[in-house]
């Protein structure tokens, strides 16, 4: 592999990276990127490795000696500190990040996203190791504009809804709205990391993803994930489409979201990894403000895309309305808009997303349709036990 340089023309040093949560959606794509395009070594830490088996099992791959899988639960495993000490950089992707869990499992959500992350931050700080920590766009909570009357002209002013890392306040609902347990835990670990940087010199970068979408995302219940549970909105809609069911619009689907293709987003993380002088000490929004839709518009577009990739006729009644209480349970609350300001990441790393919403949906739904069809075929072929 030819010598590579960073954005400032300096030679890129080969790194050993401790990647916590390497077996998940984001981790699997990041592992692929690093193994295929760099010489970095990966200490892959997770409790599952299903999504990276293709990277681990083929000993003939060029990178066979550059990735090691360590089956570790970071809640209670003393080996974690040793792996962080061995690495130049730690990337922490571990989290409970499914909205349905925020209400039904608030304690697990808070522990997973704050308490379990504390040792990672501590080990990095004490051993002078760089940390890239994955947070969430949910730390912003609600926009200022959401508190204005619906017909107020300032609701349309970007200053009241575009989310900037350095200036936007973080506004959560009341304590009884347990939906904010995730956002609050994520914000608190961000503040702790920032404080470690200020007081103890920790070199850190914080990533705030805005709905990263692509193959291997979330799960199809009973196929590539637990048979029970409610995944995030796009995966929920995918499941409905795969099963020929109407897509459920929570409270009419009026919330607005942006979506970015996983391969675009991973390119941004790659830049953070290899440009520490430009990334350290920064919080980065990583999203695509050009791919903004209401949840209802997303459902309509997904129905159209799925009909194209599957060859199936679209449902006559593609959507049904459900209340948030019925869908998520008591204590749910929602943010109105999440539009990322991209100024900082563009200035520091020169990154801009490229993939349109239609194209990322087509890639994702093609993958999910194929995966689901293969799973159904296996289930049909499986012999039934007889007494």
UniProtKB/TrEMBL annotation:
<dbReference type="Pfam" id="PF01370">
    <property type="entry name" value="Epimerase"/>
</dbReference>
<dbReference type="GO" id="GO:0005737">
    <property type="term" value="C:cytoplasm"/>
</dbReference>
<dbReference type="InterPro" id="IPR036291">
    <property type="entry name" value="NAD(P)-bd_dom_sf"/>
</dbReference>
<keyword id="KW-0961">Cell wall biogenesis/degradation</keyword>
<dbReference type="GO" id="GO:0033352">
    <property type="term" value="P:UDP-D-apiose biosynthetic process"/>
</dbReference>
<keyword id="KW-0456">Lyase</keyword>
<dbReference type="GO" id="GO:0048040">
    <property type="term" value="F:UDP-glucuronate decarboxylase activity"/>
</dbReference>
<dbReference type="GO" id="GO:0042802">
    <property type="term" value="F:identical protein binding"/>
</dbReference>
<keyword id="KW-0520">NAD</keyword>
<keyword id="KW-0963">Cytoplasm</keyword>
<dbReference type="InterPro" id="IPR045869">
    <property type="entry name" value="Arna-like_SDR_e"/>
</dbReference>
<protein>
    <recommendedName>
        <fullName>UDP-glucuronate decarboxylase</fullName>
        <ecNumber>4.1.1.35</ecNumber>
    </recommendedName>
</protein>
<feature type="domain" description="NAD-dependent epimerase/dehydratase">
    <location>
        <begin position="17"/>
        <end position="287"/>
    </location>
</feature>
<comment type="similarity">
    <text>Belongs to the NAD(P)-dependent epimerase/dehydratase family.</text>
</comment>
<dbReference type="GO" id="GO:0046982">
    <property type="term" value="F:protein heterodimerization activity"/>
</dbReference>
<dbReference type="GO" id="GO:0102765">
    <property type="term" value="F:UDP-D-apiose synthase activity"/>
</dbReference>
<dbReference type="GO" id="GO:0071555">
    <property type="term" value="P:cell wall organization"/>
</dbReference>
<dbReference type="InterPro" id="IPR001509">
    <property type="entry name" value="Epimerase_deHydtase"/>
</dbReference>
<dbReference type="InterPro" id="IPR050177">
    <property type="entry name" value="Lipid_A_modif_metabolic_enz"/>
</dbReference>
